[in-house]
UniProtKB/TrEMBL annotation:
Its cofactor is heme. This is Cytochrome. The keyword Membrane applies. Keywords: Heme, Iron, Membrane, Metal-binding, Monooxygenase, Oxidoreductase, Transmembrane, Transmembrane helix. Pfam families: p450. One of its GO terms (molecular function) is heme binding. InterPro entries: Cyt_P450, Cyt_P450_sf, Cytochrome_P450_78A. The chain crosses the membrane at residues 20-39. Belongs to the cytochrome P450 family.
Amino acid sequence: MSSACSFLFIPSTGYSSTVLSFELLLCFLLFVAVFAFWLRPGGLAWALSKAQTRPGAAIPGPSGFPLLGLALSFTSSLTHRLLSRLSESFKAESLMAFSVGFTRFIISSNPETAKEILNSSAFADRPVKESAYGLLFHRAMGFAPYGEYWRNLRRISATHLFSPKRIASFGISGGR
């Protein structure tokens, strides 16, 4: 390496300190911008969404890490308990928002709210990412388009998965 170059490969001229200061300023501004989005309720994916909400009308929830969201939190097999603790800590009585990467999620902790969501025609047919199809082999009830296939899946799950005997086997009591 020649002596004409500095450690950061900036030519050794009279302008090296100015260029370095400008680069540091740009890095600092980028850092501040990422963390400004990170502090938004729900995380980065919610901050970048096109949906306009009224001030104070945001769904409560954790912000997570920049770009990753809560992806690192879901490493255990007891994710449902983690989500329950998070909703209690954020005082999210009916809905909680968070992001995993650039994907937005809303969790319902209240059975009445979940029933309203599942029975609403607004949520009957929605766009699904191709990665979700690939991950679940094009066979998941949550991503199935509204129609005969979805009704069959719902009937099977109501009969077998959500029967009182099966719910009792999960060890879920009536109260929290």
